[in-house]
Amino acid sequence: MTISDLSARPSRVTAYADARAVLDQPLLVPEPAADVADAPVGSLSWLRATVARFTGDAQAHARRRAHAEAELARLDSYELRRTAAGSAVAADDRHTVVRILAEELGLPSPEAVADAVVTVSAGYFGGELTPVQAKAADEAVASLLAGIAEGEGTQDLEAAAQRIGLLVQACDATARLVEHARRAAPDGFAPGGADALLAQVLRQDPPVTALRRRALADVCVGALELRAGEAVLVDVTAAQQGAPAGGDRSDPDGPVHDDPAVLAFGAGPHRCPGRTQALALAAGLLERDDPAALVTDAVARALDLVATWTAWDGRPLAVEERVYTPHKVIRRIADHLVDHLAELEARLVGEEPEPDHWHASTTTTPADLAPFTTDDLEEARSRLVRLGRIWADRLGALTDTQLDRSPGQGWSFRLLAAHVAGSLDYYAGAVGRLGTGAQPKEQG
């Protein structure tokens, strides 16, 4: 099929194989920004003309994308997720996403950055703006550019534009992903938690339902022949229905395993470089909604690994500068649950938390080196499940105000729950899954 009328509606691609072929073709690019050579530096038009997202030229796109990828490489996905899980529920998700990213990138005045980015996002993808909105967007871009230049002491305007662009692109898209996930699971997570829910939503109800590409030159993609300037529309939802099952497990440490069938983040040379960070933030925002479940789910994940530790061969496992054994991990998990629970209870009644004197992970005791038996497994399961339940009952009895504006010095209780859950994943992961081991028992 050949398209000859440049004013015609773009051809619509619905088959998965055709969609991948379109997205993988370097001559098919996202809709380039209009010719704005005279746009003032610091305006919305200048931003759109300068970011990689709307750059058609391959060399300029690669250079600009490299700037964005360098910024993203500075971000720790675990910290993004933990911070999002501990954030206040009253805030706009878009604002929260940008504020966290701004903080992690070390930008000055993260709250002001988030306000400006939300304003810019209304017209960033080419949406129609009123004169008042357009003026506000231009002023917001100018303020962002000035803040980045001041904070970094740099005159590299192109690099600064990429930083602004990645913040704007994360703003609405991540919030929509969270919205769709809440819609899919109004009663909370099913087994697999936030990660499994996000994987399901990305396949079945993605926040991005269509991807538009325009031909830089005459090109043939399968049966589709496009002339330079013609557009093609990838129907993401339809294409994913015929996608192959399974995914690429090449990134086992990511918040959601890479699944080539998911096209909401694009594919090929223009694939969204911030996928991992967006998923970490989305997972954290979902976990924030129910801090009690966050802790009990972490206990369940830990016990899933603990159930295999009867296969331990007696050799301590080195992690960074410390060593761990099954008994040592159980000790650290229980101590962490007890320590922060004691802190929470003390702060609730207006007392100073009792300082802890744990030797923690710096010491490996003779008891830590003992064999890990089936009896030890059953004891650990009984202990940790009950501690997790105490946490859940206590957190469940608190209001959102108490969780977000908690009494006493220290993290909010919502952030404290996120920290505890993360610590359980860390300690259990220090030993990991060993052999086949015993299978977890259902708790009564």
User: Topology as H/E string?
Assistant: EHEHHHHHHHHEEEEHHHEEHHHH
Which consecutive residue ranges, at least 5 long each, have pLDDT under 50? Answer: 1-7, 247-257, 437-444
Describe the sheet with the most strands.
Answer: 4 strands, mixed
- Secondary structure category: alpha+beta
| Binned strand content | 5-15%
Rg, nearest Å: 25 Å
Give the distance, in angstroms, between the N- and C-terminal Cα atoms.
63 Å
Percentage of residues in helical conformation: 40-55%
Summarize the structure.
The protein is built from 16 helices and eight strands. Strands 1-6-3-2 form a four-stranded mixed sheet. The chain has a two-stranded antiparallel sheet with strand order 4-5. The chain has a two-stranded antiparallel sheet with strand order 7-8.
